[in-house]
Amino acid sequence: MIKLRLKRYGKKRAASYRIVAMNSRDRRDGRPLEELGYYNPITDETRLHVEAITKRLKEGAQPTDTVRRILEKASLLEPAKAKA
Question: For residues 7 and 35, what is the distance between their CA atoms, to the nearest angstrom?
Fold first, then answer.
């Protein structure tokens, strides 16, 4: 299964993340299938390749919870319904 998830890079205590498409069984910092964007939690900066992300989602890729929140903020996904 293809997952959209975060790949960590940067210095200690100053991490940045790339949003990547990877096989779900690959390790976190392994080689991605495709890089889809960038997220810096310190400055809350995001850069997304919208066309590539929508293509991967249509192919059936599943975002992780954190990536889902980032995509919802960018209005690429509708917010998930809260469980009662």
Answer: 9
